[in-house]
Amino acid sequence: xxxxxxxxxxxNVPAYTxxxxxxxxGPLRFRHGSVAPAxxxxxxxxxxxxxxxxxxxxxxxxxxxxGARIQGGFEEMANSTAFFNPSADYWGGKCHAWTWxxxxxxxxxxxxxxxxxGERGLWIAGKFLSRADLGNWMMATADMTIAGLPTKExxxxxxxxxxPTMQALEDTLAGRQNDVVDRNPYGEEFKFFVGKVLKxxxxxxxxxxxxxxxxxxxxxxxxxxxxxxxxxxxxxxxxAYSPFQWQRAFxxxxxxxxxxxxxx
Length: 264
Prior knowledge:
The chain has helices at residues 44-52, 55-66, 74-78, 95-101, 105-111, 131-145, 167-174, 179-182, 187-200, 204-215, 224-233, 243-249, and strands at 121-124, 127-130, 202-203. By secondary structure, it is mainly alpha-helical. The chain starts with 43 loop residues before the first helix and ends in a 15-residue tail after the last helix.
C-alpha cells in the first residue's frame, strides 16, 4: 500500500446561490433592493407610482401593455397562499426554484443586472424592477410552473440525484412552445416574465446613459445621421419606456420607437 493521497474533482459548474424571504412574510407583496433611478422622462405622477406600486401591480400593467393573456395576474399570485402564508414554517421559501433557474447562464445574466449601487435593475415599459425583485419573481414563476424542482424535504436515500433539464427555459426564451409551460395554470406568468420582462428589459445604466446623451444634444429634432448612431448604440432602449412616455419625450425629436427595438 502506498502513502495516502488526495483526490480532487471539478464539475465545472460555478456555485450560485440566492436566498428567499420566508413565505410566511409574503415577500412578493413588497419592493426590495434598488429603487427606481432618477429619470428626465418621468412625470411627478409616474415617480410617485414607481415609489408606491408593488412589483406585482407593475408587472400586471406591463403585461397589459404587451397584450399578454394572463388570467390571474402577478399581484394575485403575490397574495396567494403559495407566496403569503402566515402559518407557513419560518424556514419555508422559494430558494429551491433558484437552484434550477441558476443553472442557465442566460438567466443568471438577465436577473443579476450589473451596475453601481442604486442602479441594479431593469426598466420595462416605464416600470422598474430591481435585481432583488427580478430574482424573487424568477423563483416564484419557476416554483409554480416547473414540475420536478429539487425536493423541499429531506430524503432517506442520499444517493438520489436530481437531473434537471433546462428545456422549459430554453423554449420560453426562444419563443417556442413547451408542453410543461403551456399546460400549467401559471404558465402564462412564467412565459411573460422570462420571455418578455427578462428578455426585453433594459438595464438602468443603459436608460440613464441614453437620457444623458440626449440631454447633451441641442434642443429640437435630431438629424437622421445622429438618430441612426443612437439607434445603433441603444438598439433596444425603447423597451424601457411605455409607448406614452416615448411619444411624449422622444417622438418630437424624430426618434421612432421601432428604430430603438420596441417589442410591444
